Fold:
Amino acid sequence: MQSVGGQSLAESLGITAGSIVLELGLDDDSSEEIRAAFAQAAGSDLVDFDDIDVADVSLVWFRDGDEDLIDLLVDAIAPLTETGVVWLMTPKPGRDGHVTPADIADAAPTAGLAVTRTVSASRDWQGTRLVTPKGNRR
Structure:
């Protein structure tokens, strides 16, 4: 797992002890390194919809060719706290399933989200941070 400014990637992404991390879109190609880092930073296992009513972070895996990005993002924000964030993990350019930044930028507002930044999460995956714009928060 990459390090940013002396912090682990998950810590630099705002994953702190006690955070509840919902995971969506898990598949055989999802990075175990990223998953383990999120779980370690949160101090607990990643959860799915059956395990929670509310989450602090949604870790979303998406590849070109998967079902519908907008629907997946809407599902990801449904249980989030008011200050919750979505981390969308997509394959990096040149990897199978790469999703263009334009596709993410088009899907985010339709799902009620705004893109704030993109980071290199691992050798094969990049992460895009998405938040609910302040004016749209419940």
Remarks:
- The CA atoms of residues 121 and 127 lie 6 Å apart.
- The longest strand covers residues 80-91.
- The mean pLDDT is 90.
